[in-house]
Design brief:
alpha/beta; six-stranded parallel sheet; elongated; binds NADP nicotinamide-adenine-dinucleotide phosphate
C-alpha cells in the first residue's frame, strides 16, 4: 500500500479534536476510500496539558503552529485555530509558501485573505481546501465548484448560521423575545459568550462571501457584503409573519442582476411554502440556482465537531488521491471582476411595521408618505383599537426600490404619531 498521508493539525479544540476522533474511529473506512492511511503525526495547540478527550501521545508537538509548515515529515497542514489574522494566517501562508497543501475550516480567514492566499497556493501548485468553512457538514463547496461546474449560477441563498436559526426558531415556537432566547442559547452552548459574530450576521457574511466567489468566479470580497443581523427582530414581527404566510430567516443571498452582483445578509420574510422556510433549529441549508440544473437545495448540520470533521476529512481524502481543484473554481487570472450592486439599488417587496397612536388621519399620512416615494401597497393589517394607545400597523409593499423605501421611512419617522423606530424586513420570494 502507498505510504500514509502524514497530517499536521494546528488547533485541537472542537473541530481539531473531532478530526482526530473521526480519523481514529473510521480509520479503516477512510484508508480504503483514500487509497492509503491518513495519519496525524504532529499537532499544535496552546495548552499542552489540556485533556482533549482524544489521545495525542506519540505525536510531535509544536508550541508554535508555524513550525508545522517547515516539518519535512508532514504532507498536509490542517489549520483549525480560527481567526482571520494572527497564527492561522501565518501558518496557512507559511505552509503554502513551503509547497504544502492546506485544509482549513476557517471562513473568516478565507473571506478576508482568500484571494491573496489562493494566489500563493496557485504559484506553488498546491491545494487550499476549505469544505468545512461553509455550512459545516454540508458538502456545499464541492457541490458548487465541481458538481455544478457546468452551470451558470444566478443565485445562492442560504441559512448559514445555526445560532441565528436556532434563536429565530425558538422565538417563533415559544413567542419569546430575542434577548431571552439568546440567554438560553448561551446557557445551552448554542451561542458564544460573545455572540456578536453570529447574531450580527458577520459569520454568515464570511460564508456568503466564499459562496459568492465560487458561484460567480469573482475574487472573494467580504467588504462588499451588506450585513444586518437579527438583534432587531421582535416576537411581534415573527407572529405577523406567520399570519401573513411567511417565516423570518436570516439569509445570505448572492444574486446576479443585470447591473452586477448583489451580496447581502439580513433577516428575510420567506414564504412558508418555500423549503428553506422549514429548515429549523441549528440546521443550515443552501439553495443554488443554475441555468441548466435549476434549483438545488442542500440541508444539514452547519457546525459541531462531527459534521465539521466530516468535511475536513473529505478534503484529506481528495488530497490523498492527489485531486486538486482551483481554489475559487478557476485559475486566478480567469476570475471576473463583476461590479457589486449597492443595497440602495436593491429591488424587492417589504414588510413594514409601525407602532402608531390610534387617531384619525395617521394611516392616511403613512400611506401618503409611501405614495410620495412611489411605493405601492399590497396589503395592510391594523390590530387592536384602543384610542390614544400605540397599535401596530403592518404594511406589505409591492416590489419597489430600497432607496424609495428609505425615503418614505424618513418621512414616516418624522410623524409624532409614530412611537418606535419602524421595523422593516425584506420579503424574499424564494
Ligand atoms: N466549532 C464549529 O462547529 C466549527 C464549524 C465550522 C468551522 N469552524 C471553524 O473551525 C476553526 C476552529 O474552530 P473550533 O470551534 O474548533 O475552535 P476552538 O474550539 O476555539 O479551538 C481552537 C484551537 O486553536 C488552538 N489555538 C489557539 N491559538 C493558538 C495558537 N496561537 N497556537 C496554537 N494553537 C492555538 C487552541 O488551543 P488550546 O486548546 O490549547 O486553547 C484550540 O485548540 C475556526 O476557524 C472555526 O471558525 C468551527
Amino acid at each position: 500500500m502507498t505510504r500514509p498521508l502524514s497530517v499536521g493539525v494546528a488547533g485541537l479544540g472542537t473541530v481539531g479534536a473531532g478530526v482526530l476522533r473521526l480519523l481514529r474511529d473510521n480509520a479503516e473506512l477512510v484508508a480504503a476510500r483514500a487509497g492509503r492511511r491518513v495519519a496525524v503525526t504532529a499537532v499544535s495547540a496552546r495548552d499542552r496539558s489540556r485533556d482533549r478527550g482524544v489521545a495525542t501521545q506519540g505525536l510531535r508537538w509544536y508550541d508554535d503552529p508555524v513550525g508545522l509548515a517547515a516539518d519535512p515529515a508532514i504532507d498536509v497542514v490542517l489549520e483549525l485555530i480560527g481567526g482571520s489574522d494572527g497564527p492561522a494566517y501565518k501558518l496557512v501562508h507559511a505552509a503554502l509558501e513551503a509547497g504544502k497543501p492546506v485544509v482549513t475550516a476557517n471562513k473568516a480567514l478565507l473571506a478576508v485573505h482568500g484571494a491573496a492566499l489562493a494566489q500563493v497556493a496557485e504559484q506553488h501548485g498546491v491545494s487550499l481546501a476549505f469544505e468545512a468553512a461553509v455550512a459545516g457538514g454540508i458538502p456545499v463547496i464541492k457541490a458548487l465548484r465541481e458538481g455544478l461546474a457546468a452551470n451558470r449560477i444566478d443565485r445562492i441563498a442560504g441559512i448559514l448560521n445555526g445560532t441565528c436559526n436556532y434563536i429565530l426558531t425558538a422565538m417563533r415556537e415559544h413567542g419569546r423575545e430575542f434577548a431571552d432566547v439568546l440567554a438560553d442559547a448561551q446557557r445551552l452552548g448554542y451561542a458564544e459568550a460573545d455572540p456578536s459574530f453570529d447574531v450580527d450576521g458577520i459569520d454568515a457574511a464570511h460564508k456568503l462571501a466564499i459562496l459568492a466567489a465560487l458561484a460567480f468566479n469573482r475574487p472573494v470580497d467580504f467588504a462588499s457584503v451588506h450585513i444586518e443581523g437579527i438583534r432587531n427582530v421582535s416576537a411581534v414581527d415573527i407572529a405577523f409573519a406567520n399570519d401573513l404566510g411567511y417565516r423570518i430567516k436570516l439569509l445570505g443571498i448572492a444574486r446576479r442582476t443585470p447591473h452586477g452582483i448583489e451580496m447581502r445578509v439580513h433577516p428575510c420574510m420567506v414564504p412558508q411554502s418555500n423549503p428553506i422556510a422549514r429548515v429549523d433549529g441549528v440546521y443550515n441549508a443552501v439553495v443554488a440556482e443554475g441555468d441548466f440544473v435549476g434549483r438545488v437545495m442542500l440541508e444539514g448540520r452547519g457546525a459541531g465537531a462531527g459534521p465539521t470533521a466530516s468535511a475536513v476529512v473529505a478534503d484529506l481524502v481528495d488530497l490523498a488521491h492527489g485531486r486538486r481543484a482551483p481554489v475559487w473554481g478557476m485559475a486566478g487570472e480567469a476570475l471576473v471582476q463583476l461590479p457589486v450592486v449597492p443595497m440602495s439599488a436593491h429591488e424587492g417587496a417589504y414588510y413594514l411595521r409601525l407602532m402608531v397612536v390610534d387617531r384619525p388621519g395617521v394611516i392616511a399620512d403613512v400611506t401618503a408618505a409611501l405614495r410620495d416615494a412611489g411605493v405601492s401597497l399590497e396589503s395592510m393589517i391594523q390590530r387592536g383599537r384602543a384610542p390614544g394607545e400605540a397599535v401596530p400597523v403592518v404594511l406589505v409593499t409591492h416590489e419597489t426600490n430600497e432607496g424609495a423605501m428609505r425615503a418614505a421611512l424618513e418621512q414616516i419617522a418624522r410623524s409624532d404619531a409614530v412611537l418606535e423606530p419602524p421595523a422593516l424586513i425584506r420579503i424574499e420570494p424564494a
